[in-house]
Write a structure and sequence with these properties.
It comes from Endozoicomonas lisbonensis. With 222 residues, this protein is an alpha/beta fold. It has six helices and ten strands, in the order αβββαβββαββαβαβα.
Length: 222
């Protein structure tokens, strides 16, 4: 079982895919396991076990949350019905699990897959970003044009493509489309993106800002 965990960890590392390894570091009383590892992918897929049941479900939830924040964490679980960290169980034991996050990189979303964002993608890859590219023009979304492991997302419209991506408070966005900047900007401004960059002339920026304000976007956004 341990070999499966670390074999999968090696595969995920090679593909630069985020994951976490939960390791039991301390137990007391009647714990289901005393020394075990559980690998958790951001999708919820798991390899290995830390004992199953409510404790393992809790550890999986905590691991997925840790991957999203990019921060490792300690988890305490009490296999009792009440009290601190109680899991609603009758075993009476307790377990301390360390969740170690791997391969979590800063997220960069490039909207538009043209020459500009192709160049930005290659530069960002050198800086260690995990890159997603979204476009409504599928011919632009050719894997050979982008760094290895770039996620390519298409949609019938640019907004549809953006909705298919994952934008968190840690996501940085660069917009550089052919003719869909207005639609893209309006969509992204409604998300929690950490930073939004728009490639445009001064005149175009002024026009885009006016349209955003007219649509009800708060002036504090700019």
């Amino acid at each position: 079982m341990t070999n499966n965990v670390f074999s999968r960890a090696a595969e995920l590392s090679d593909s630069h895919t985020p994951f976490a390894i939960a390791s039991i570091i301390e137990t007391s009383g009647s714990a289901p396991r005393h020394n075990a590892q559980l690998l958790v992918e951001d999708s919820g897929q798991t390899f290995g076990t830390v004992g199953g049941g409510m404790v393992e479900r809790h550890v999986i939830e905590e691991a997925i949350a840790a991957i999203k924040t990019g921060q490792s964490r300690m988890v305490d679980a009490s296999m009792s019905r009440s009290g601190k960290n109680a899991m609603g169980m009758d075993c009476g034991g307790a377990m301390k699990v360390f969740i170690d996050v791997h391969n979590v990189k800063p997220q960069l979303l490039l909207i538009g897959a043209g020459h500009v964002n192709q160049a930005v993608a290659h530069l960002a890859a050198r800086l260690g970003f995990a890159i997603t590219v979204a476009d409504s023009w599928k011919p632009n979304l050719t894997a050979e044009r982008f760094p290895k492991f770039t996620r390519l997302v298409d949609g019938d419209t640019i907004s549809e493509a953006i909705v298919k991506t994952t934008i968190t408070p840690d996501t940085q966005v660069v917009i550089a489309t052919n003719h869909e900047d207005t639609q893209a900007l309006m969509t992204v401004l409604k998300t929690e993106a950490r930073h939004i960059g728009q490639l445009a002339s001064r005149k175009k920026v002024k026009t885009l800002k006016a349209k955003a304000l007219e649509s009800g976007i708060s002036p504090r956004t700019f």
